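Researcher: Predict the fold of O-acetyl-ADP-ribose deacetylase.
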Amino acid sequence: MTTITLVRGDITRVSADAIVNAANSSLLGGGGVDGAIHRRGGPAILEECRRLRASRYGRGLPTGRAVATTAGNLDARWVIHTVGPVHSAEEDRPELLASCYRESLRVADELGARTVAFPAISTGVYRWPMDDAARIAVDTVRSTPTRVEEVSFVLFDDRAYDAFARRTG
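Model: Structure tokens for O-acetyl-ADP-ribose deacetylase follow.
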């Protein structure tokens, strides 16, 4: 069974086999968690992302999918990039958000990762409501068969931490 822990802090400062990046589909960096991971991880991550774009993902990584690269200068072996959905009141997208967590765990299993650190995917500029994002994240991790031993949700602020604590407590 996978242990779930909560960490209040900066995902670029944690130690894990794999750190999940809330990437944009270009895989070439951006704002928020994505920009922070690229900045702290250094140019090796961007180089591998460019190779992925030149080969398998010419049109970008589809929403809900995941792919791994080196972790560069981060305290991890890999970065697993996943593209979360933009929240919409008109479209039913929770399955796409759940897919980010399932696909990231699938990639982690393929890599042999035993510890994985997740941010709160889609809760920044993609505007997913925090309580709903926490519900989807925690329920999906709990229900997904995986060999990952520990999943950490690394949450940047008290609002995110409290929302995830309500789901795990």
